[in-house]
């Protein structure tokens, strides 16, 4: 038995996980499992500590603000650590939380999470939790070292000075986020994952920071509605599409699977990730309009808890947050060539999933589509073609990229139908899809069927 399992007093538990001098430093994951094991024995303290096991014993419920207060940390730090250690948010309706835990304070900000990289369940021990490592280490370049680095080798020879891992961050951004280390690190992580040169990262981040300050001032968070409204142009406000565009933009901040806050305020780092895929700020409204179905509601998403009369509605081939497993399962059930586009993990990319006819049979494939908000409008969308040599093919619009460059057909847009069988897709170059053998024997269009999304 470890020292935490022997504790029955909540005040003593807080003392141990927060500032016990006998323990040099307790890892975040160890604190979490210690508190989960404690609230498992004392469920009455879940509302005070801010964390507990769901009845399934595999997922947890947490409130970043309450947990942060208990651990002496800001809610941003709690959310950042959850993300860094692969605790992914799972969509949940509030009634499920109420059924499992009764009346909880600040109910709107309790999230359901699961660990997606390491075994994690009600049987996880303190020793198991010690083995859970944050993403991106040791090569992410984002780890803050709390002490002075050793600048000399064993032979007393000065060690080489490494390139500053955050050198691409412009002065305006560093000064802007000087008091918010969590957002600074999140910003750096987003930028590092983008397919840009150091100079392009600097240029993009400099412009995006200036746009934020121009619209919202020097605050690092802004009201959710104010942020969405800032993207809407006067022309859009005067059109019939205003409510639909607003709902679609709002959806990206409200319903994304990795949303760690579900609050009214949106941080600069979340804004940055959105701009990387749909920006710059001045072009967001037009870019979202290009992905919007203004004629009919999107039937493959259940928005039972959506808080507006207008539901998000995207063009049929675009499913922003659907996961790859669901896509591949649906493609397996299709009889003809089919395709769909979703957001990728990196903030500047999308993934095209397709069932295509290759070498005499159907194959399930995927390929990356890159978006470069830093580029000229004619070269913002691109795919990699490998016709003997790797070349980027650029496009100004989605229609140009999908139908001209990729050679896809509108009649083969996937009408989603749930299939729970697992099938592995393979990643291919864009040229494989573009130059595939046309197979006209299976050119029927399947009927539209609703699907319950597994986010």
Automatic annotation (TrEMBL):
It comes from the Eukaryota. Residues 21-111 form the Initiator binding domain. InterPro entries: Initiator-bd, WH-like_DNA-bd_sf. This is Initiator binding domain-containing protein. It holds the Pfam family IBD.
């Amino acid at each position: 038995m470890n020292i935490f399992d022997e504790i029955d007093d909540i005040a003593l538990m807080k003392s141990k996980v927060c500032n016990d001098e006998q323990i040099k430093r307790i890892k975040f994951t160890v604190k979490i499992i210690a508190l989960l094991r404690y609230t498992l024995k004392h469920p009455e303290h879940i509302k005070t500590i801010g964390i507990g096991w769901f009845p399934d014993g595999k997922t947890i419920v947490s409130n970043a603000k309450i947990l942060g207060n208990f651990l002496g940390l800001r809610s941003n730090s709690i959310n950042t650590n959850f993300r860094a250690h692969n605790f992914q948010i799972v969509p949940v309706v509030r009634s499920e939380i109420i059924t499992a835990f009764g009346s909880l304070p600040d109910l709107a900000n309790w999230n359901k999470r699961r660990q997606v990289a390491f075994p994690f369940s009600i049987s996880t021990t303190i020793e198991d939790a010690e083995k859970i490592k944050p993403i991106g280490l040791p090569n992410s370049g984002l780890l803050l070292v709390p002490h002075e680095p050793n600048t000399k080798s064993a032979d007393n020879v000065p060690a080489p000075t490494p390139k500053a891992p955050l050198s691409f961050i412009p002065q305006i951004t560093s000064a802007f986020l000087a008091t918010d280390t969590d957002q600074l690190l999140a910003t750096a992580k987003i930028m590092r994952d983008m397919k840009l040169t150091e100079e392009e990262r600097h240029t993009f981040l400099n412009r995006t920071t200036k746009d934020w300050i121009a619209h919202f001032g020097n605050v690092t968070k802004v009201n959710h509605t104010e942020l969405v409204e800032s993207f809407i142009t006067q022309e859009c406000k005067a059109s019939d599409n205003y409510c639909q565009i607003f709902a679609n933009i709002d959806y990206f901040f409200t319903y994304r699977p990795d949303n760690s806050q579900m609050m009214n305020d949106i941080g600069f780092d979340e804004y940055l990730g959105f701009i990387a895929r749909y920006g710059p700020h001045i072009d967001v409204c037009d870019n979202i309009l290009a992905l919007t179905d203004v004629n009919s509601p999107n039937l493959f998403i259940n928005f039972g808890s959506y808080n507006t009369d207008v539901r998000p509605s995207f063009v049929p081939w675009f499913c922003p947050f659907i996961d790859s497993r669901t896509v591949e399962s649906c493609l397996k059930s299709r009889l003809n060539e089919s395709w769909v586009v979703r957001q990728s993990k990196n903030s500047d990319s999308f993934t095209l999933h397709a069932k295509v006819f290759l070498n005499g049979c159907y194959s399930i494939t995927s390929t990356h589509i890159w978006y470069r908000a830093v580029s000229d409008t004619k070269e913002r969308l691109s795919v990699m073609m490998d016709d003997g040599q790797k070349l980027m093919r650029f496009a100004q619009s989605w229609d140009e990229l999908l139908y001209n460059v990729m050679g896809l057909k509108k009649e083969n847009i996937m009408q989603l139908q749930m299939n729970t069988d697992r099938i592995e897709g393979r990643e291919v170059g864009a040229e494989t899809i573009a130059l595939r053998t046309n197979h006209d024997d299976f050119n029927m269009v399947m009927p539209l069927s609703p699907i319950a999304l597994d986010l």
